[in-house]
Amino acid sequence: MSKQNKNLIVALALAGVLCLTTSRGLCADSPLGKKPITVGFSQIGAESGWRTAETQSIRSEATKRGVNLKFSDAQQKQDNQIRALGAFIAQRVDAIILAPVVEGGWEPILKQARAAKIPVILVDRGVNVSDDSLYTTLIASDFVAEGKMAGVWLGKKLNGKGNVVELQGTPGAAPAIDRKKGFQESLKDFPDLKIIKSQTGEFTRAKGKEVMEAFLKAAQGGGTKIDAVYAHNDDMALGAIQAIEEAGLKPGSDLVVVSIDGIKPAFEAMVAGKLNCTVECNPLLGPAAFDAVEATLAGRPLPKKTVVKDQIFDQSMAKEVIGTRQY
Ligand code: AHR
Q1: 125 lines ligand 1 (CB under 6 A)
Q2: Starting at the edge strand that comes first in sequence, how are the strands of the sheet with 161-168 ordered?
Q3: Atom 6 (ligand 1): residue with closest C-alpha?
């Protein structure tokens, strides 16, 4: 063997040892070239068009960056997410991306991740913990602001007066809590705009329809007249629209419908005159999530929270904007 080849073998062997013994971030930059990192992603489920778009964004960004992604769908159950995180920790992944279904109950598993020195990046929803060093960073929309935008829009649309039914998201989930709060805050400026009924539709189209059917039945059976629907997401609003039509009423005119997310089917419903307004909540979090993973593995500091900017769209803009929607 030539001296040059021997030197090369020694260099490669040394690089391999370095790779095994130094921190994960350094390992990625070893003389052997970039070692692909492994990231575990615990997703809530596939309850809405928004959620599917978020999953797609994370998956495609992982592929683009050559990240080995371990994906786990929790089917709306926190227990499944906790089990998935436990498995990621046992497999010694380089980092974890977590979209937590509810805010509470995360401390024990996050402590295990911290003890294993595995950074946890929160996407979309936050957690309620006494020590925020249990996660690295949160990348999410401002759900309170979204609820406020929806409330202010509706208040103006109804000239400050009317009866609203609310379709809430998953109980205990950050967007359900905060979108309710934001909407209620906006009502301070519209004292004659009242929430007359409020129930969870669990962020799904089917449940949104079912709950709306019950609300309409009560109203048509002599209960208080409903002027508007405020749904915590587009899927529930689309379910409610179906229920309204099946009850012989016109969504968008007999009842004003406002929701949150800004998915393409919501724009289609606005163009058709059935949905009045949607507040965008951007699900395309893949690039920001993997920027955060790379930064933290390289030892660069990160802000505790990055707020994703959202905007509001109503029927007047729907036609013009629909072609530009990415999800
Ligand atoms: O956490 C974001 C919310 O979760 C979206 O508004 C909703 O569609 C999803 O299921």
Answers
A1: yes
A2: 192-200, 161-168, 228-231, 256-261, 277-280, 312-314
A3: 233
